[in-house]
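Hi C.,

You asked whether I'd gotten around to modeling the 168-residue construct. I have! Everything is below, sequence then structure, no commentary in between.
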Amino acid sequence: MKFVAIDEINHFEYHDAVIKKMEIIEDKMTWIVSELNATIQNSQNSFIEDMCINECEIIFDHYKIEEIIFSAYKIFDSNQNLIESVDARTADFEDYIGIIEDTMKNSCRIVGMIEMPETSDGRKKACFGIDGNRDYFDITFSFTKFTARWNEYNGKAWYEDKIWKEKA
């Protein structure tokens, strides 16, 4: 790959990135992601604006899923009458892989990422908000190394457009 960023998880903008594939092999979790943006702080971005990446391979070495939490929600009819209310729930450990497999039956979007403090044993940690089309959940996991690899940019990030900057 032409561009490689190591341990720069916070030098990407994840909002609306599409996870096209998620694969777990041994102790590595690999995501194939499109519409990810490299920020100007990213060591591989030599442009003066955040840039959109056409397709990126992200590898989390020695990953460990810490928790998956499904979001609470309420559904109202047009008269503001409550139709359904669901509380947030934490998934059981033994369901983690099944949740990931079910989510990847369709493409899903990353809503955002929060880099978290390292674990007591020095592992990196992050929480990703995932819109899995049927469910929205936060997945928190720890890992020893983050690697992002890609070949090309696909223009500047959408939010770098003048119309969006004026609205901010």
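If it helps when you're writing up: Helices lie at 96-103, 162-167.

Thanks,
B.
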